[in-house]
C-alpha cells in the first residue's frame, strides 16, 4: 500500500514553525507536490475501504483555516485531512483521516448526523446499549480509538430522554 511520503511531514513541520502567507508563497511548489502525493494516497485509501464498504466520495479539506471568528489568526492548518463518505442513502456515517506529524488520527462514525439519524441512534442506545458498550470496552478498540469523543454533547438529557437513563452518557452525544 502506498504510504504518506516523509516530505509531507517535513512540510507540515516547517509550516508549523512558519505559518504565514509569505512562507507559504515561497514554498508553494513543495505544497503542490505534497498535495499530488496526498491525493494519490487518499485514492488508495478509498480503494481499500471499497474492499469492505462502498465509498462514494473523498473530500479533501483545505489547508486554509477559517480565521474569521478565531483568536488564532494563523492562516494555515498544520495538518492535512480528508473524509470518506459512504455510498447510498441506506449507508450513513463515514471515515476521517488526519495527517499531522506526531498527531495523525483515523476516525469513523457519525459526525453531526442529521436530526433523524441522531434521534434513531439515541433511541437505539436507550433501547439496548449492551452491544456498543461491549465494543467500546474491547481492549484493542480502546487502544486504537479510545471511545466516543465527549467534546460534542448536550449538557443534559436531550428532549424525550430521561437524565437518569442508564445510557445517558451515550445518549447525550451529538456525534459518534
Overview of the molecule:
- It is a single chain.
- With 176 residues, this protein is α+β, with helices and mostly antiparallel strands.
- The protein is built from seven helices and four strands.
- The protein has a four-stranded antiparallel beta sheet, with helices on one face.
- A hairpin with a 7-residue loop joins strand 2 and strand 3.
Task: Note poorly predicted spans.
Answer: none
The tally of beta strands, per DSSP, is: 4
Q: What share of residues are in beta strands? A: 5-15%
Question: Average pLDDT, to the nearest integer?
Answer: 92
Principal-axes shape call: globular
Strand order of the largest sheet: 1-2-3-4
Distance between the termini: 28 Å
Share of helix among residues?
40-55%
**Radius of gyration based on Cα positions:** 19 Å
What sequence of helices (H) and strands (E) makes up the elements? HHHEEEEHHHH
Largest sheet entry: 4 strands, antiparallel
What structural category arises from helix and sheet content?
Answer: alpha+beta
Treating each run of at least 4 consecutive H or I residues as one helix, how many helices?
Answer: 7
Q: Quick recap of the structure?
A:
The protein is of the alpha+beta class. The protein has helices spanning 6-17, 21-26, 28-49, 115-127, 130-137, 139-145, 168-171, and strands at residues 55-60, 80-86, 94-99, 105-109.
Keywords:
alpha+beta, four-stranded antiparallel beta sheet, about 15% strand, globular
Amino acid at each position: 500500500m502506498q504510504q504518506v511520503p516523509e516530505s509531507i511531514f517535513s512540510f507540515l513541520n516547517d509550516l508549523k514553525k512558519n505559518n504565514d502567507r509569505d512562507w507559504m508563497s515561497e514554498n508553494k511548489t513543495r505544497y503542490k507536490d505534497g498535495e499530488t502525493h496526498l491525493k494519490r494516497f487518499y485514492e488508495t485509501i478509498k480503494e481499500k475501504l471499497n474492499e469492505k464498504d462502498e465509498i462514494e466520495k473523498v473530500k479533501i479539506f483545505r489547508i486554509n483555516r477559517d480565521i474569521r471568528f478565531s483568536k488564532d489568526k494563523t492562516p494555515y492548518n498544520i495538518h492535512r485531512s480528508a473524509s470518506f463518505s459512504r455510498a447510498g442513502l441506506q449507508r450513513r456515517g463515514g471515515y476521517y483521516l488526519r495527517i499531522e506529524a506526531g498527531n495523525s488520527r483515523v476516525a469513523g462514525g457519525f459526525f453531526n448526523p442529521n436530526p433523524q439519524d441522531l434521534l434513531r441512534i439515541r433511541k437505539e442506545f436507550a433501547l439496548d446499549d449492551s452491544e456498543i458498550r461491549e465494543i467500546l470496552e474491547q481492549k484493542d478498540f480502546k487502544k486504537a480509538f479510545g471511545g466516543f469523543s465527549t467534546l460534542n454533547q448536550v449538557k443534559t438529557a436531550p428532549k424525550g430522554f430521561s437524565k437518569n437513563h442508564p445510557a445517558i452518557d451515550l445518549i447525550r452525544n451529538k456525534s459518534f
